[in-house]
Amino acid sequence: MTFGRRAFLANTTLFAGTFALGARAAGVPSSGTDDLTAFIYAMPKAEMHVHLEGTLEPEMKFRFARRNGVTLPYKTVEEMRDSYNFHDLQSFLKIFYEGKSVLLKEQDFYELTYAYLTKAASQNVLYTEMFFDPQMHTDRGISFSTVMAGLTRAQTDARKNLKIDSQLVLCFERELSAESAMKTLESALPYRQHIVGIGLDSDEKNNPPDKFREVFARARKEGFHLTMHCDLNQLDTHEHIRQVLEDIQADRIDHGGNILERPDLVAIAKRRGTAFTVCPVACGWLRENGENINIIRGMLDRGLKVTVASDDPAYMKGNYVAESLVVAQGDANLSKQDLLTLARNSFEASWISSAQRKTYLAKLEVFQRQWA
Ligand code: HPA
Ligand code: ZN
């Protein structure tokens, strides 16, 4: 994650508009309009890069703190929001990890997940693969089963009440040891029917993908899909991307924008069909030779399988996936065809059965006939 000036400006500019658009998004906008924003909200889509712990909105944080007897270092929601000032991955993670103190009970994990799924369903997300970081919780003495019970109960209720389908992707914290990751993977095995994939997030500096080569090989053998973060502009980023593509052979890369600087890596990703989950609010731009290069535009132009996602919406001024697509559209002047490609990619890169994929793609086709 890089919080470049450009992304901040886009985000700040969008801020007021986001709330105005939110009201429209609550209902299904009428078809037959040229309004690209309405098009984006109504378009059937999947989201594959959202950290559940990153959906903990300040209001919810206060509510959980109150009922769990946790003291927060802020007096008001506004004060908390104002403190969300980060300039790079490390300063973001410091704030992000502070939030976990209020997540203690099964009900907290349930409400967190159900709230995200409610928001996603309101933006016509048909399917989502949600990241969660069990080490953030088990390290504080919360059992794996407590976390899983809350998450899966919310998924079941959302499937029934909101008609949104979801699966979980377990992420390891990469600054922790490979042994800790292996132990976490082993404690996840009894829950394998609820976990579709394994990912890697958190502090990338001096924590390369290859540190987890063995544990990801084991995860693959156990039948999980694989993804890994390669945040923007990190130390050794090209080597990290190479390791994900060639050594780990993951199915997807989260972010991965610096691949645009290396045609040889682009060629490998295209050959392997690697998908990219790009979060335009966190890092939509790459600065190269004094020029701003839009990552989504760059990936689309090179024929990479790029999808758009929100990452940590509660920490990014409430920009969920539809708002992230609005930012992407504005930044890169995306056409309806581009937006449809992003939505098609999101279903094609999802870890679902071919029957489920066919159903989603058929819905997208109906939408395209009505709207494009
Ligand atoms: N990158 C790394 N770690 C994270 C992120 C991210 O985008 N979001 C939450 N933890
Ligand atoms: Zn992320």
From TrEMBL:
Keywords: Hydrolase, Metal-binding, Nucleotide metabolism, Signal, Zinc. The keyword Chloroplast does not apply. It is an enzyme of class 3 (hydrolase). Residues 44-363 form the Adenosine deaminase domain. Its EC number is 3.5.4.2. Zn(2+) binds at H49, H51, H229, D311. It catalyses: adenine + H2O + H(+) = hypoxanthine + NH4(+). The record marks H255 as: Important for catalytic activity. The keyword Isomerase does not apply. Its cofactor is Zn(2+). Binds 1 zinc ion per subunit. Belongs to the metallo-dependent hydrolases superfamily. Adenosine and AMP deaminases family. Adenine deaminase type 2 subfamily. PANTHER family: ADENINE DEAMINASE (PTHR43114), ADENOSINE DEAMINASE DOMAIN-CONTAINING PROTEIN (PTHR43114:SF7). HAMAP family: Adenine_deaminase. This is Adenine deaminase. It comes from Gluconobacter japonicus. The gene is add_1.
